[in-house]
Amino acid sequence: MLGATALAVALPKLSTRLALSRAKHRSLAGHSRMARRLAAFIPFYEYDGERFFRSDDAPAEIAARRQAGFLRLSGLFRARFAESVRVTAETADGLSDLQFTSAYRVPFQFSRTVREHLKTGGFVQSSDGVTVTDLDGNRFYDLTGAYGVNVFGYDFYKDCMDRASADARALGPVLGAYHPAVADNVRRLREISGLDEVSFHMSGTEAVMQAVRLSRYHTRRTHLVRFCGAYHGWWGDVQPGIGNPVPAHETFTLEDMHEDSLRVLRRRRDIACVLVNPLQALHPNAGVAGDSALVDSSRRAHFDRAAYAEWLQRLRAVCTERNIVLIFDEVFVGFRLAPGGAQEYFGVRADLVVYGKTLGGGFPVGVVCGRHDLMKRYRDDRPADICFARGTFNAHPYVMTAMREFLRRLDTPAIRACYEGLDETWNGRAARLNARLAAEGLPVQIANLSSIWTVSYTQPSRYNWMFQYYLRAEGLALSWVGTGRLIFSLNYTAADFEAVADRFVAAGRAMLQDGWWWTDPALTNRAIRRRILREMLAQRWQRF
Ligand SMILES: Cc1ncc(COP(=O)(O)O)c(C=O)c1O
């Protein structure tokens, strides 16, 4: 009898647990704890001398071509980026972020040699149109998009910032009481989001924290759901895997665009909210595609707007049915895809929407918009049970006036025109560049979500990460994640884009010529990964 009762209690729990396991993506990114454990196991080792150029067992003649190309680029970088590199080197010792980003531009086995010989400056002095200029006076077409902030072109933001300074000057840094711009921003953001209330924060990370905290407060449930690979800032609960030294106990990472995940949402009673970063539509279940992880050519991406919209609709329905708060994290894509953001673009409404980046008109910001019942930070019937969220610099006058200017300009005919035929423009550009790359026999293809692009490689290679340096040599500026993410601002004209496309193809040609894309039937992605695993195991036991 006792046994039967215990079984009756245990079975549903077990089945709920199994459903959760089934809803995890099979990749490591889907298994945060395992990923963290494995990351701690990976030993450092590196390729030096000849092995740097022959990690794929290419013939000596190919290795020699690679070496010659590498030395040529090294000389070119030394001559062309002298001042930028000098200031970078002088500062790096005291700037942890710079040390981190330069160490993680390429797979770690190659990193030290690359850092020694292909020094890239971490400084720029000015921006103009779609270009940035470094300390040596070199102009680059900007494909960094300032981490996504730059939607309308740098000059647009300079104007917003100038106007903001003029408008906020009389008040200065007074905090607590609001600048009148706040009233305008609240009105406009309510219209844009279609939601009742707004709260202002200093970064996207903070705004996401607040959206999750509110969800937990109002649902009285503990857990948040995020989808495999999705970035939501660097707060611990939304970054349960590698990069966060402590486990996130109240986070479930589920498989994106999968029925099993909906099953978990239907079944569990501890889920407060689901976080969606619509950027994942470009590469569901895959993380930020940095070139430091580009050890082979298995990186893939493909955007299917209809399929993602349908997934969001299904998610919406389950969240409504289960009273789970659906949060759209539009920090990256908001205002880039459509004036009404991802809600408008995919035709699905969220309960809370988080914006950031571009909305600050060039200044740092995070914003939560939400339904009144979810945004409320206290309970009328329990006065001591509050949901606290303050921040010294929230609603800073200069940020608020820049945001007001951003929102004002969003309504101008010139900016409205940017959105007309936006996807056709960027899909057409991607398709034309892909056709050119294919016609040249280059093993490189682009996938895009509107103006957000990612590069994939069509034949197995251990050296794809070199492409970022050939692109740089052609005057294209990439962020530290390299070819994993290229971000165009919407002020790229057809001529600007053609110039980028020409340089892109020229970079590919040079890289091909220098032998980096040598291939062999035995060189498969799987063989590459196996070999790296063997090297790691051998290194771990000191036999490598
Ligand atoms: C979707 C998303 N959410 C949140 C964040 C965090 O924003 P911030 O870097 O302003 O803290 C980012 C930043 O890239 C993001 O892309």
Q: How many runs of DSSP E, i.e. beta strands? A: 16
DSSP strand content? 5-15%
Give start-end ranges of low-pLDDT stretches.
none
Q: Which overall shape is indicated by the principal axes computed on the Cα atoms?
A: globular
Give the cofactors and ligands: pyridoxal-5'-phosphate
Strand order of the largest sheet: 4-10-9-8-7-5-6
**End-to-end CA span:** 59 Å
Mean pLDDT: 95
Q: How many strands, what sense, and barrel or not for the largest sheet?
A: 7 strands, mixed
Total count of helical runs of at least 4 residues: 20
- Structural class estimated from helices and strands: alpha/beta
Radius of gyration over C-alpha positions, nearest whole angstrom: 25 Å
* Helix content percent band: 40-55%
Give a structural overview.
Helix content is 46%, strand content 13%. It is built from 20 helices and 16 strands. It has 544 residues and is of the alpha/beta class. The protein binds pyridoxal-5'-phosphate. The site of pyridoxal-5'-phosphate (PLP) has 14 residues, from helix 10.
Summarize the structure.
With 544 residues, this protein is of the alpha/beta class. The chain contains 20 helices and 16 strands.
